[in-house]
Amino acid sequence: QVQLVESGGGLVQPGGSLRLSCAASGSISRINIMGWYRQAPGKQRELVATITSFGDTGYADSVKGRVTISRDNAKNTGYLQMNSLKPEDTALYYCYYKQRVATIWSSDYWGQGTQVTVSS
Question: What is the pLDDT of residue 21?
Answer without folding.
Answer: 98
